[in-house]
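Appendix B. Raw example, untouched.
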Amino acid sequence: MKLTGPFTQLLTMDNLPERGKLSDDQLEIIPNAGILHQDGKIVAIGNFEQLCKENPDAKIEFFEGDFVCLPGMIDVHTHICWAGSRADDYAMRLEGKTYLEIAETGGGIWSTVMKTREYSFEELAALTVERAEKLYRQGITTIEVKSGYGLSIDDELKILKAIQLANKKTNAELIPTCLAAHMKPKDFPGNEREYLQYIIENLLPEVKKQNLAIRVDIFVEKGAFSITDAKYYLSEANKMGFDAVIHGDQFSSGSASLATGLQAVSIDHLEYADESEIEILAKSDVMPVILPGASIGLGERFAPARKMLDAGCPLVIASDWNPGSAPMGDLLTQAAILGAYEKLSMAETWAALTCRAARALRRNDIGVLKKGNKADFIVFKTGNFKEILYQQGQMKPAP
């Protein structure tokens, strides 16, 4: 048994509404707090001195000075298993070319696919561990990781196996998602529907058999896949027992009905979601996931986070860390910048990184500090939680 503390403030992120807007006075903040934990699980949370008296045999992990404790952050959308660089793409965007124009001329996703295919399973696992450890040092303790830079049966399986191996070698917990429907590979002889059918028949059964992922994602956009094709693909994946996730409304709207009709776990991006899309999502259980890193990386608009919350939607913020559209890979900085532009309360931002993010992974054991949950917490060297977002990502968790 270990007792960790005392913390000047401990934010449990418990007992918050699952959707809609939040104010900071709704946050449960325990002063002079401690966490009693054993075998990776929380046994009790409360006043540090009281916990000391009640558990005299507990090993003390003592924090001297002012510290704030929060649940470990959760990044529900990343692409951190890749090889190569897209710095040339970024330079072209700075010169005025769009993401879609660059993709049409041989850059974009396909250039990363070609480089990633050259790397071995072991090399990709090592790169994934390196990036996961960087996120872990930033306070991200749970990380969703997509495939999607293989776009062949063997290469997609290689990437998912690399993620599986990386999960055994990093301090963070990695959650795999199969994104073989990232785009139709240029070396596939058929059309988009034929490629999706090829995946359904040849890849997804192996993913299921080898227990490499329970989540399937698809990019719905010009240059990727249509709403009609995505509906067919995800419906077939659902029949096989996979959870559906959608890259939607990044450059154009129209994917919200698809997500709600399929009862998708989440729809991610939403930069171009309009009022009708927001209304659809507000009436559904689909989790809207906003990716400010892609907006910053592409110089595009932010998703309408304020409107979503005001309409009664939940909200999740993720980094989208990838080599092309979102190369920053700093979730806390991105969330702080988004919050300033979209006028999000600190409670709304922290919920989007913790308790509401956990729901986007269908997890109820993380994102909230309470008895029985995973002892998954981070600590900042400050006496006031408001300092963390105020410093816009420059304050990092204590080692």
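End of appendix B.
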